[in-house]
Structures are given as C-alpha cells and as structure tokens.
Amino acid sequence: MPATSTHGSSSGVRQVQSAALPPAFVGQLVSTGIIAVGAYLLSKQETTIEQDRFDSSTGTACPSCGGSGYEACMCTRWSDGDVGCNSCSKTGYTRCKSCGGNGKAVPRLIKIRKENL
Description:
Layout: E1 4-8, E2 13-17, H1 23-54, E3 70-72, E4 93-95
Antiparallel strand pairs: 1-2, 3-4
Keywords: Membrane, Transmembrane, Transmembrane helix
Organism: Tetradesmus obliquus
Protein name: CR-type domain-containing protein
C-alpha cells in the first residue's frame, strides 16, 4: 500500500499518496544503463587501437600525399578550370585518405586466422 501523508490547510485536510516507480521500469532503467556503459567501453577500446595506429611518430612519409597530409580533391579531376567544392571548402585539397592527414605511412591492420592443419 502506498504511503500516505496528510497536509493541513485552512480549508481542511487532504491526503496525498506518494507514487513509487514500478519494478519493471526500474529494471529497464538499470539494464539500459548497463548496456550504455558497455557500449561506451567497447567503443573506447576500438578507438584506442585505431588511434595508436595514427599516433605513431616514427615512420616514413605517406606515399599517397608525399608527407603533406593533403591530396587533390575529387572536384579537381572533372573541373574545367574552376577549383573547389563544398567538400574541400573551395581549396581543391582534402585530407589524405591513406594517412588520415598526418603525413606518415600508417601500417594496415591485418587479421590472419590460423586454420587447423
């Protein structure tokens, strides 16, 4: 039975019932919170692995951009003299797709499965 309390007023007494959260709602809140925390931790772990690849300070210059971190935008390939589009902010250059814009050659992650021989 919900808890009741009485509040006095000048015109009389009224009863107020306090509402409790239903157990199913509380369980749903807890499970949603656990899923959210788990998803955050998994995404953080994958981001860290990817970030380690890009943060390597040692390495050779990227062969695609020559170490500049930028390459010609696609709009320059079909342009008739005017350069620029919304993707490159009218500059004609975008970040290099091979190195991510840092100018260093990035090693590729290769997963090799060992087959039973």
